[in-house]
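In line with agreed milestones, the collection of sequences with tokenised folds has grown. A representative record is reproduced below.
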Amino acid sequence: MCRHLGWLGSPVSISSLVLEPPQGLLLQSYAPRRQKHGLMNADGWGVGFFDGSADGAVPRRWRSPAPLWGDTSFASVAPALRSHCVVAAVRSATVGMPIEISATAPFTDGQWMLSHNGVVDRAVLPPSRLAESVCDSALLAAAIFARGLDALGDTIIEIGNADPQARLNILAANGARLLATAWGDTLFLLQRTDGVVLASEPYDDDPDWEEVPDRHLVEVGADGVQSTPLNRVKGTR
């Protein structure tokens, strides 16, 4: 019940990924084209990007509980912000979950930034004092961070088995790697000449967008793009 986007490649402006595309996250905040659950994403937005090289990247975040379309300050600054690795999201809050900055993706453990598109029963998640919020996505992020992103595939399989109704589309990055899962919602891949985009839905009508099959893990890194069925995952690289 969100839309999110990840980028890994050459440094580009945040605006070129989030605000400028004709069907980008700005439009998806009020008129998504491929969203199966919910009509809009007006319960907040967040952009995380890495400052520095891939080996020494520092995560930075700008988050708000307000709709993206009304934030003129971000719109004025986004063209000047550049990064080689970005995680951005617009939020449609799960019913009963708080609408506050701390409940808005991306979440971080200081090294990785992570967004969750979906819903999960909090009862199947371990309690965590490190979670940024009591919302389902924050608790899920804390569980993933605690186990480590190298085990992302196994973690999603186990949580999905514990909650068969869960939708567990994850997008995570650490400045050198970009990981994503398709589990119950849409995920698309675009390989550009300057980098790779993973997104809940295409931000334009480029014919090179590819839909990632459900129950798959995607990793983007130095070795290119790899996709693995989640029923075959036993620990990611």
Notes: The longest helix spans residues 136-147.
